[in-house]
Automatic annotation (TrEMBL):
Residues 1-23 are annotated as: Disordered. Keywords: Kinase, Transferase. SMART domains: S_TKc (SM00220). This is Protein kinase. Pfam families: Pkinase. It comes from Ramlibacter agri. Residues 26-319 form the Protein kinase domain. The lineage of its organism: Bacteria, Pseudomonadati, Pseudomonadota, Betaproteobacteria, Burkholderiales. The keyword Kinase applies.
Length: 475
C-alpha cells in the first residue's frame, strides 16, 4: 500500500530540539558527523553545533562520556588560543550532550574532498579540485591544521578522532581558517591511552587491530591520510589496485596488512587514478608520507611529528606559481619548476612574467666567525625558497619551512606589479639591497620599485653587523 500524502497546507514536520543547562533551545538539522559516542548536528544558529549522546541518560556509557566531557573542559585549550570548538553549554534534554561554538562561514573539510572527488569521477575533470581552491589553498589549510595539532601535541594532548568531518575550514576559497570539532575525544595521551576511537578510513592500524588506544601518534596517522587524500584525491591504502579488485581487502588495508599505494618496493597495491605526486607534493612531502605509511606502519614512533608536517607544507605553499588567466592559463597555482608548465592545464610559461624564485641564506659578519674565516664562509645556504608573484608575500625573520616562521615578525612585503619588483618595508625595520656589480649597499625605506634588469641581487633582512637572513634572486 502506498504512502498517504500530507493534506494540502499542512505544516512541515517539526525539527528535533534539545535544551541546554542554561535554558537555551536548539533546533537540530541534518547530522554532519557521527561516531560510537554521539551525533553532531547543526542548529538554527550557524555559529553553534550540538553533539548528543547515542545513549539515554543513566546509561553507563553516557555517564562515562559525561565524565570525559567534564575532564575536557578543564584542559588548557582556550588559554592557548587553539581553534578547537569547546563545550559552551551542556545539553540536558532529551539526551545528554554539549553545545559548541564555531566561527561563521565554516564547512566540513569533507565538503572540499567530496566536491573534488565527485567532479573527477563524473567528468574526469579537475574542475572540483580547482573550484575548492586548487593546490595553494590545500597546502595552506593543511599547514594551518598541522600547526594547530603541533601545538596541541605540545601540551601532551591528542585529538583522538581526526577526520574530514571533524575539521572545519573556511567556506570561501579566499580564506584558510581551520577549526576542530568533536573535542570530547581530547585526552592526555602522547604514546597510548585506553580510548580506542576512530573514524573509518582514518584510524591508525594499531587502533584498528585493537593493540593500542588513541595518542598523538594516531593523530599523526589520521592527519597524513587526510593530507594525502586532499592533495592527490586518493586514499593511501584503499585506493590501490588490490582493494579495487577485491573490496573485502579493505579491512586488511586499514589493518596495515597490505602496502600503501606508493610503497617504494612493493608494487602490488599501486593506484592507477589520482593526481601524480610530482604535481602536488614536494620531495620533502613525499618523504614524510613514506615515513608515515611505510616506516611508521608498525612503528608509530617513526611517524613524522606534526611540526615536521607543518614546516614541509608551509615550504611547499611558498613555492606556488600562479597560472595567469589573463595570459591564457587556468587560474590555478602549481609548484615552481624550471619548465614553468602548469600541470593542470598544460600551458607553459604563463607565470614566467609575473613570478621569480628567491633562495634563502644566512649571512654572518666576519666578527662572528673568527680571524681565519673566508668570504665564502660568511654565507650559509638554508635550502628554503620563496616564489614571489603578484600577491604580496611577507618577508619574515625566519623563512617558510622553519619552526619559527609563523611567529617571526615581518620586515617587509614583496610582490611584482607592472613589471617591477615592489618592496614595502615595515617602518623601523632594517632591509638592505645588495646588487651585483654595485659596491655600495642600499638601505631601503617605504615602498621601492625595482625594474627587471636581469641583475643578481640580495635582500638583507636585519642589522648588517649581526647574523641575519638574506633572500637572493635574479631580477
Amino acid at each position: 500500500m502506498g504512502k498517504t500524502s500530507e493534506p494540502a497546507g499542512s505544516p512541515p514536520p517539526r525539527k528535533p530540539r534539545v535544551m541546554d543547562d542554561k535554558g537555551g533551545v536548539y533546533e537540530l538539522g541534518k547530522r554532519i558527523a557521527e561516531g560510537g559516542q554521539g551525533i553532531v548536528c547543526p542548529t538554527q544558529d550557524p555559529r553553534f553545533l550540538v553533539k548528543v549522546s547515542r545513549h539515554p541518560a543513566g546509561d553507563p556509557r553516557t555517564e562515562a562520556w559525561s565524565r570525559q566531557i567534564a575532564a575536557v573542559q578543564q584542559m588548557p585549550i582556550e588559554e592557548n588560543d587553539l581553534p578547537i570548538a569547546m563545550p559552551v553549554a551542556l545539553v540536558t534534554k532529551p539526551r545528554p550532550g554539549y553545545v559548541m561554538e564555531l566561527m561563521d562561514g565554516l564547512v566540513p573539510m569533507e565538503d572540499v574532498l567530496r566536491q573534488a572527488h565527485e567532479r573527477l569521477l563524473a567528468e574526469d575533470s579537475l574542475a572540483g579540485f580547482l573550484a575548492t581552491g586548487g593546490l595553494a589553498r590545500r597546502l595552506r589549510l593543511l599547514a594551518r591544521l598541522g600547526r594547530v595539532l603541533a601545538r596541541l601535541h605540545g601540551l601532551g594532548i591528542a585529538h583522538g578522532d581526526l577526520s574530514p568531518k571533524n575539521v572545519f575550514v573556511s567556506r570561501s576559497v579566499e580564506h584558510d581558517q581551520v577549526w576542530l570539532i568533536d573535542c570530547d575525544n581530547l585526552t592526555y595521551a602522547v604514546r597510548n591511552s585506553d580510548l580506542q576511537i576512530y573514524t573509518p578510513d582514518y584510524g591508525a592500524p594499531e587502533i584498528f587491530r585493537g593493540e593500542l588506544g588513541i595518542s598523538t601518534y594516531t593523530d599523526i596517522w589520521s592527519f597524513a591520510v587526510m593530507a594525502f587524500q586532499t592533495l592527490t584525491l586518493l586514499h593511501p591504502f584503499k585506493s590501490g589496485a588490490l582493494v579495487d579488485a577485491d573490496s573485502e581487502l579493505e579491512t586488511a588495508a586499514f589493518r596495515g596488512d597490505i602496502p600503501w599505494v606508493d610503497h617504494d618496493s612493493d608494487e602490488r597495491n599501486r593506484a592507477a587514478a589520482g593526481l601524480p605526486r610530482e604535481f602536488v607534493c614536494t620531495p620533502q612531502l613525499v618523504g614524510l608520507f613514506q615515513r608515515c605509511f611505510q616506516d611508521g606502519l608498525s612503528a608509530p614512533e617513526r611517524r613524522p611529528v606534526m611540526a615536521e608536517w607543518a614546516q614541509a607544507l608551509e615550504a611547499a605553499a611558498a613555492l606556488q606559481v600562479q597560472c595567469e588567466e589573463d595570459d591564457g592559463g587556468c587560474g590555478s597555482t602549481f609548484l615552481w619548476s624550471e619548465a614553468m608548465e602548469c600541470p593542470f592545464c598544460g600551458q607553459v610559461g604563463r607565470g614566467a612574467k609575473s613570478s621569480v624564485l628567491m633562495d634563502h641564506l644566512v649571512f654572518a659578519p666576519k666578527s662572528f666567525l673568527g680571524e681565519d674565516a673566508k668570504p665564502q664562509d660568511q654565507w650559509t645556504v638554508t635550502g628554503q625558497a620563496q616564489v614571489v608573484g603578484v600577491t604580496p608575500v611577507s618577508l619574515r625573520l625566519s623563512p617558510p619551512g622553519t619552526a619559527s616562521f609563523p611567529d617571526s615578525r615581518a620586515l617587509a612585503s614583496v610582490w611584482i606589479q607592472g613589471g617591477a619588483l615592489t618592496i614595502q618595508v615595515v617602518s623601523g625595520e632594517n632591509v638592505t639591497l645588495q646588487t651585483s656589480g654595485v659596491k655600495q649597499l642600499e638601505p631601503l625605506h617605504g615602498r621601492v620599485r625595482l625594474p627587471a634588469r636581469g641583475a643578481r641581487m640580495a635582500l638583507h633582512l636585519g642589522r648588517l653587523d649581526a647574523p641575519h637572513g638574506v633572500w637572493r634572486l635574479t631580477w
